[in-house]
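Handout, page 2. Input:
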Amino acid sequence: MPTSKSLPEAPGSSSGVVSMVRKGRIRDGRMAETNGGSSIERVPGFNNMRPMTAGFDTTRLSGPTILASTPDGGFFSVTPGALDTAKAAGSAYGVAGKPEDVIGIDDRVIIPDTSVTPWRCVCHLEITYDSGQVGFGTGWFAGPHEVITAGHCLYTRGTPARRARQVRVIPGRNGTLAPYGYVVATKFEWNKKWETASTDDDAAAYDYGVIHIEDQGSVNDAPFGERIGYFGLRHYDAEEERRLDMAIVNNAGYPHEATKAYGTMWFNAGRVNMNAGPVRDDRFLEYMVDTTGGHSGSPVFLLDTTVGQRYVVAIHTTGNFINRGVRITAEVFDQITDWLK
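Output:
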């Protein structure tokens, strides 16, 4: 486990080192509005997005054209008839997992201004696979150069397996507007066990990966993630777990469904249920939060007002009434920390 002899910095301005002052595995985020910590006064009618996005390649984006639903709850852009042809040939389309669900009445709300923290640290992902298909998902900045997402967004188990060839990463996308521009990434990793596990059930706890943002993501000689910020990361051990049980967690992502405009970010919150299901599995976190296809890879995070930090505690992957993510266990924390090196 990485350590630091220095005391943690003030809330919102952390360098992201692991602090030994608080117990457990903790990596603070960086979410000050600017590198120097300065921020804009909130004045009604003033366009805050203009100064916030200065120096970035703000642009307009077009959406996909042809969409087809697939068994894993994801959506893919394909040529007409290609999906039916592949199905007839017996090709598998992703993990036969449980789709994400809306719990009761859908009370998600759209994020109207995605250019501010923490929403600008959440990214829309457009993933081009080696098959030529284009998939959609959500990711989040965990460091200056790293975006974390679900493993199945980058490598889809099945016969044949599907690998990402490139990913267009769009921080804080708001419909057709990319306030901070975008980066096309070609370097990714996922937990090796996500690919090599013999069954989908065994693989589920390793369904997470990383997208590396290289030099093209530098803005004004600073890494992309450092300019816009990144989430903290926290593992709650057995002694601290009571703080996590029944905590309220937040989630924001990019659902891909007919009732929501393509590329818009939607928010929901709900309580954690540590004891959901007939058999408890500490590798996962379950929560009463509405999600649908496209949310995969989105951050499930706590807003810890005692230290002024937003800590991701799970990576959203699947659901069925009570939705579920890969929990930030000690193993997951250490893997992500290793990627951040």
